[in-house]
Amino acid sequence: MAFKEKLVDVRAVIDLPVSFYGDREAWAKALEDEARDLRAFLRDHRSRDSYGITIERVHESRCEYCGDLEEAAMVEGIPWCCGAAQEEYCKINGMAMSELEDK
Question: What is the pTM of this model?
């Protein structure tokens, strides 16, 4: 099919023990402060304590022809993002392009 799952980002995620109630800017500041403390800890601490770090892989399914996201391009299982994706859909499903226009 015209849509392929691709790895688009990889992140190291560290859960910092910050519980904060307030606006987002104050929360971001509290997280930045905790991250600074963690960096100092890692620099000074040589043991292998469990830091709670996970790796997240972020995938997106995009049209191999035009690059649109699958969620935005598909309507009731039919790609509407570009003509090339529609042609492939019709070819796979044994349809003429004119039949697709009737849907």
Answer: 0.51
